[in-house]
Amino acid sequence: MSFLTIPVVVLILLSLAAFFVLPYFKKGLQWCIARFINLPGDYVKEIIPSLSRVVKLNWYTFLMIFLLWFLLTGTTVGRDIIETYLDRLTERNWQVEKLGSLLSLFGTIFCMSISIWILPFFLYSKDRIDEIQNNYLRFYIATKLLAFIAMLPFMVVTNAFVSYNSVFETKVWLQILVNILLFLFFLLFIWFTTSKAVTRLIHKMNALPYKIYNPYILVLIRLSVLIILLAAVFTLLMGREGKPLYFVAVFLFFSSIIVFRLLFYSDENGSDVQQNVRHLVQQMVSPKNRSYSKWLYLLLLTGLGAGFLIYYFLPDLTVISTLYILLIVFSFYIIYLDFWRNAYRNFSSLMKIIAFGATVLFLATPFLGSEKQFRIQLDSSNHALADSPISLDSALKQRYNYILKMNTDSTGKKDSTVFIVCAMGGGSRAGYIAAATLMELDRRRLGLWNRTICYSTISGGSVGVYNYIKAKQLQLQETDDYLYKIYKQNYNSSGAFGLLAGDPLESLLRSVVTIPRSWIPGNTSSNGFHDRNQRIRLEYDRILQNAIISNPAITGKDNKEMTAAYTRDYFKTYFQRNDSVPIHFVNTFEVNSGRRTILSPLIIKGADTSFFLNAILPLQDTSYDCQILRKDIRYREAVNLSELFPLISAASHIGIKSNAQFVDGGYFENYGLATGLDIFHYLKALKVHPKHIKILLIKNSKQEPETAERNIQILAPVTGAMNSPFTGHANQFLLEAKRIVGDSNVYIVEFDAKKYQVPLTRSLNERHIVSMEAFIDTFKVMGPGKLFMKPNEK
Question: Burial of 614 by CB count in 10 Å (0-12 exposed, 13-18 middle, 19+ buried)?
Answer without folding.
Answer: exposed
